[in-house]
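WARN retry 2 of 3 for item q-0093 after timeout on previous attempt; input resubmitted unchanged.
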Amino acid sequence: MKTPEEVEQAENQLKEIQVDYNYRIADFSIGELLKKFVLKGEKSNFEDDAISGLYVPTYQRNFIWPENMQSKFIESIFMGVPLQPLFAFELDEDGNLELLDGVQRLSSVKSFVDNDLILSELEELNYLNGFIFNDLETARKRKFSNTTLKLYIINQNTDEGIRADIFRRVNEGGERLAPAEIRKGKFIGNNFYSFILDMSESPIFNALFSSTKKTEKLRGEKEELISRFYALSNNYKNFVHSVKGFMDDYIVEIDKDFNESMKEIMRVELVKTLDFVENNFPNAFKKSEKAKSIPRVRFEAIAVGTILALREKSDLSTSNVDWLNSNEFKKWTTSDAANNKSKVIGRIEFVRDCLLENIELNTLTYDN
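OK item q-0093 returned
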């Protein structure tokens, strides 16, 4: 049994926390929401100045639902299924909102109403398969547009920590978001992570970035690689088994002292690394010329090993990177135990030592 004092402490904490989560609930028709909705990368173009915007923030993932998932959601609306509410943050006194959760659902609705989505793979309303919005009767289109969706609106005075926590709690369940996507919401207001996002979109990095899946780019793979570069190049010896926890802790700590001077130093180091890799490694970070993807462990080894070598020797040059095909390098960069501390340190220092010729390269072994 808890003591009266313990019960009182818990009750006081509950009351205090509930005050921080200041929100209201509003019902909007689909038609009203679509008038407000501004997709990421688009500019608002409201004909009526009285209409406030509902914006997709930079930390949200792009629209990636396949057509069958979009269609299932539209089917649910037609069927009157109770739907999970949308979450938004109030930006200003004009009523403009930032969409914390619901991009995929609202984008699906917009795609349907814009006649871009052809309904498919519906099971309950299978007669609607092959329909676009304009195929519906006028009355049915009107009813669809008048359907209300519930929107939780977080008060604009709520601090960024609470706002980020709401995003995390809404999105961390299941496999809805990739770790890098959650990081975008979790580190709202973190200047260092904003810098990571900027560098992930830099031309020099994108020139070397490659992926087999279109959605990987949209789901945070680029910022994942940049985050690993900085966290490991500056703290790899303190790595523990959890990549997510290691990088999150690093981002929090660096942001405490992050300033313009640090920003420029870190930007230059990334550029120097990428320049060196582009000019000295035949396939950059890829395994072969025909390869489409960049394995994370390979990227870590090459990128971090390179900057460590450049820190020791700023005029570094190399005429032999055959060791990339050695059995030793393959051992360090296999997926088996990829997040084992000894392997992380081993593969990074192997690349560093090969570039600095601290390893007798003629002792390495190769498959025939």
